[in-house]
Amino acid sequence: MNGYPSPDTHKMDAVIEFTAVGEVSLINNQLSSEEVLYLKGHRDYYANYRKWTDIAILLINRELKQRGLMVVANTRKTLKVAVKDAETEVGWIQVKTRIVMQVETGSGYTKEFIGRNHAGEAAIIPRQTDGALMRAVAAMLNDAEVIRYLTE
Q: At 43, which CATH number?
């Protein structure tokens, strides 16, 4: 079963307020479209990290527009984004999801951001991935180096 995250399920975690002007390109840097197992169990769940990166880019796009940046193709300022890993663990009383997203700025700064989400044992798996991906995006948007790059 495919559990694609949705950009609209969860309200964005708190993000540092900043204002930027100009343009930025958001680039899907995940080259693989392979379906990867991220939860094996009663039902198996697969992730296509390229499609998940598209969802992360939708979230980033929305947040950057709110802060004054125009998101366009082919501009000098870039953010390359790639979901690199995801896993969900179903435990006795809790379900935990972790997503790793790598971001590289046009200035060469690269960092992995981890989003975690957890819920009780009756968790809905796609909502788990929604929350974890949103938190990875929020972590990126709270990173001082990313903010510096976007506002310079």
A: 3.40.50.10610
Number of domains in the chain: 1
Q: With a threshold of 0.85, does the pTM exceed it?
A: yes
Q: Is 15 among the domain residues?
A: no
CB 114 within 8 A of CB 100: yes
Is 117 in contact with 125 (CB distance < 8 Å)?
Answer: no
Question: Beta partners for 85?
Answer: 100
In a domain, 18, yes or no: no
Instruction: Compute the Cα dihedral for 133, 30, 102, 80 and give only its sign.
Output: negative
Q: In the predicted model, is pLDDT for residue 22 greater than 60? A: yes
- The answer to whether 100 and 82 have CB atoms below 8 angstroms apart is no
